[in-house]
């Protein structure tokens, strides 16, 4: 048996195949590099760039400065170094964006698959989804934050508490679109003959879902996920702007943007830098999602 | 095939009084307003090692029949015994260990293969489910199966979209064979292929049957292909079996008016016979299976309809040894003819089921 198999390539590793296709996607590679640079900027940046400690009198003198060698991105209205604030803010914004997106996608896919595959759960779960869609989100978030912020802050500290609460709040209020898309897709997929073949083998629903349904709903989920990152970052900014996100002295890209808003006409760089960072994140994530979706589809991968 | 008919054969599949009704719901509250009678009281046997052809027009319940026998649907009533075990009402847990013995080959080779799995993954899926083979053993078995269905081993890492229809159907057959089944339901396995490939696939199926001793339920609407492959043929009309007979008898001398009409539609290759051929043209449409006629299902279109057909459903009776017909035309002859043969058959059936 073994000697007849000589010359036959062993099954190519799935990851290697996906990676080699992903690398062919120019946009995706561009997105990956930009995102990697952003992550390096917010994680390694603070270790390299130590802003000088200013006394109060100095800080008052050096407020609202334009970009210079001393302050590469200028200073804010309190004389704080914008570059250092951008780095600290990015860490939070990126973390909020990705973790909230993951929660939303996980919830959405879970609900969508259950509703689509099990007819009995369909009615209940989709009505639940409709209910969440019908809720006005911003007031709901405000109420959630108002009710729970202090309780969580007492346990985890004000910053970590706010982070967990915001991520969770954004996650549980933005899964509905993913759920609807996934449900529709699953309804179509479960009537396919390969699902029937799998059932004829005696595979349990869990195996059928993991092996046949989930890999085939990857494309719409990927699209929903990339849009979700952007949405989460923006929603966090809105919350912070309304004073219900992170504490006021705690920078996020969204907050920097809103702080800069009133000085926009005098010091446009106060808005441009955080805006650019958010846009670059969203754009790169979109391209990565695009490339990943193509790479995961064998019909495109073969070419 | 003839010598097989003489020796007593073991029944592998016994279907008795099988009914499959799909509910029709309407309104906001989804109240049940009726049934689509996809299968209405069907009974037949399949002997070990034979091929039973199941023919009929679109929508007559052929595919539903195949799927119910494999318990992909839950039947409304009736019993299905495969190898002596009644699976008609068995739950998923009881069914799982029985699944390897019965498999299915699907109609559309494009839709029956997961586009995101490699050929090795597709053929190996049944092995993952039912065996504890190591990776190397599994790969060996996959290569063995690919050899058996005539696929190059180098194709193992490719994806379904890279294959032609015939090759895809071979992959589907290899998957069905993976667990050494005894009984395979072929649900129009050649309907989506072009003619030259049809012959290849049918020859492959026959070859596998000879080598592995498989039993087929071959569902098709292609009468000439059924004539080629089947040992016995069942003709279905609107959820009921109209006629069930050995192949040659059925094709030479169809008894049920529907079978006669169906066979008269098969074109002849010889142009002289073709021009002289007399077709029985049926008028009207197939009645809705949600609202079948009160009497015989065929009474609305039958060229030889009688009064009794409008009111009484004819039962499937054995007219001659091995020939079952559900038609009032033959009821009198059966009653007047020798009473010995049908009773003999009755006894046989009971003996076999015990």
From TrEMBL, chain A:
Residue spans crossing the bilayer: 29-49, 94-118, 130-148, 160-182, 213-234, 271-289
Pfam families, alphabetized: BPD_transp_1, OppC_N
Locations listed in the record: Cell membrane
Chain ranges of the ABC transmembrane type-1 domain: 90-289
Gene3D superfamilies found in the cross-reference section: MetI-like
Listed InterPro entries: BP-dependent_transpt_permease (IPR050366), MetI-like (IPR000515), MetI-like_sf (IPR035906), OppC_N (IPR025966)
The entry's keywords: Cell membrane, Membrane, Transmembrane, Transmembrane helix, Transport
Membrane topology category: Multi-pass membrane protein
Family to which the UniProt record says this protein belongs: Belongs to the binding-protein-dependent transport system permease family.
Protein name as catalogued: ABC transporter permease
Annotated source species: Albidovulum sediminis
TrEMBL record, chain B:
Residue ranges of domain ABC transporter in the record: 15-263
UniProt xrefs under Pfam families: ABC_tran (PF00005), oligo_HPY (PF08352)
InterPro entries in the record: AAA+_ATPase, ABC_transp_ATP-bind, ABC_transporter-like_ATP-bd, ABC_transporter-like_CS, Oligopep_ABC_C, P-loop_NTPase
MF GO annotations: ATP binding
Subcellular location: Cell inner membrane
SMART domains, per the entry: AAA (SM00382)
Signal peptide stretch: none
Regions crossing the membrane: none
Keywords: ATP-binding, Nucleotide-binding, Transport
Primary subcellular site in the record, as a coarse category: membrane
Membrane topology designation: Peripheral membrane protein
Region (Disordered): 335-354
Record-linked PANTHER family: D,D-DIPEPTIDE TRANSPORT ATP-BINDING PROTEIN DDPF-RELATED, TRANSPORT ATP-BINDING PROTEIN
Similarity-based family: Belongs to the ABC transporter superfamily.
Protein name according to UniProt: ABC transporter ATP-binding protein
Organism field: Albidovulum sediminis
Phylogenetic classification of the source organism: Bacteria, Pseudomonadati, Pseudomonadota, Alphaproteobacteria, Rhodobacterales
């Amino acid at each position: 048996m073994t000697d007849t198999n000589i010359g036959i390539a062993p099954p190519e590793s799935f990851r290697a195949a996906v990676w080699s296709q992903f690398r062919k996607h120019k946009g995706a590679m561009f997105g990956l590099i930009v995102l990697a640079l952003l992550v390096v900027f917010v994680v390694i940046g603070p270790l390299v760039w130590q802003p000088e400690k200013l006394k109060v009198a100095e800080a008052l003198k050096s407020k609202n400065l334009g970009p210079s060698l001393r302050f590469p991105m200028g200073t804010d209205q309190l004389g704080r170094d914008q570059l250092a604030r951008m780095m600290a803010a990015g860490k939070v914004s990126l973390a909020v964006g990705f973790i909230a997106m993951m929660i939303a996608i996980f919830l959405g896919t879970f609900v969508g698959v259950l509703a689509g595959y099990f007819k009995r759960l369909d009615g209940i779960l989709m009505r639940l989804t409709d209910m969440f869609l019908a809720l006005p989100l911003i007031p709901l978030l405000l109420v959630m934050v108002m009710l729970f912020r202090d309780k969580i802050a007492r346990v985890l500290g004000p910053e970590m508490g706010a982070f967990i609460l915001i991520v969770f709040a954004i996650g549980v209020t933005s899964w509905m679109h993913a759920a609807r898309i996934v449900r529709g897709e699953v309804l179509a997929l479960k009537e396919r003959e390969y699902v029937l073949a799998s059932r004829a083998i005696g595979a349990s629903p869990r195996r059928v879902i993991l092996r046949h349904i989930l890999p085939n709903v990857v494309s719409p989920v990927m699209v929903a996920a990339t849009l979700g990152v952007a949405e989460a970052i923006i929603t966090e900014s809105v919350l912070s702007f309304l004073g219900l996100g992170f504490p006021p002295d705690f920078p996020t890209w969204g907050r920097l943007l809103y702080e800069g808003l009133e000085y926009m006409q005098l010091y446009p760089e106060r808005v441009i830098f955080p805006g650019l960072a958010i846009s670059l994140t969203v754009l790169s994530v979109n391209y990565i999602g695009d490339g990943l979706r193509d790479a995961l589809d064998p019909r495109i991968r073969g070419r | 095939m003839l010598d097989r008919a003489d020796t007593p054969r073991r029944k592998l599949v016994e279907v008795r009084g099988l009914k499959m009704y799909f509910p029709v719901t309407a309104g906001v509250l989804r109240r049940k307003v009726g049934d689509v009678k996809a299968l209405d009281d069907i009974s037949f046997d399949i002997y070990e090692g034979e091929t039973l052809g199941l023919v009929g027009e679109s929508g007559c319940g052929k595919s539903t029949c195949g799927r119910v026998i494999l318990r992909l649907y839950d039947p409304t009533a009736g019993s299905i015994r495969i190898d002596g075990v009644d699976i008609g009402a068995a739950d998923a847990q009881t069914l799982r260990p029985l699944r390897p013995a019965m498999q299915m080959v699907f109609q559309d080779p494009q839709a029956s293969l997961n586009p995101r799995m490699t050929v090795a993954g597709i053929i190996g899926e049944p092995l993952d489910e039912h065996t504890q083979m190591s990776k190397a053993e599994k790969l060996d078995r996959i290569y063995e199966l690919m050899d058996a269905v005539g696929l190059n081993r180098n194709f193992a890492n490719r994806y379904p979209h890279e294959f032609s229809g015939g090759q895809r159907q071979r992959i589907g057959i290899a998957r069905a064979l993976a667990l050494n089944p005894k009984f395979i339901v072929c649900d129009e396995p050649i309907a989506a292929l072009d003619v030259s490939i049809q012959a290849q696939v049918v020859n492959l199926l026959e070859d596998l049957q000879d080598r592995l001793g498989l039993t087929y339920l071959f569902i098709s609407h292609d009468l000439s292909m059924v004539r080629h492959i089947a040992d016995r043929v069942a003709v279905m009309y609107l959820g009921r079996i109209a006629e069930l007979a050995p192949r040659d008898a059925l094709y030479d001398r169809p008894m049920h008016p529907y079978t006669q009409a169906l066979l008269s539609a098969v074109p002849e290759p010889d142009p002289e016979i073709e021009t002289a051929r007399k077709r029985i043209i049926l008028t009207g449409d197939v009645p809705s299976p949600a609202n079948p006629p009160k009497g015989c299902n065929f009474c609305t279109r039958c060229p030889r309809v009688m009064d009794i057909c409008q009111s009484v459903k004819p039962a499937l009776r054995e007219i001659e040894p091995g020939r079952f017909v559900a038609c009032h035309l033959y009821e009198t002859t059966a009653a007047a003819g020798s009473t010995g043969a049908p009773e003999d058959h009755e006894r046989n059936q009971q003996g076999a089921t015990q």
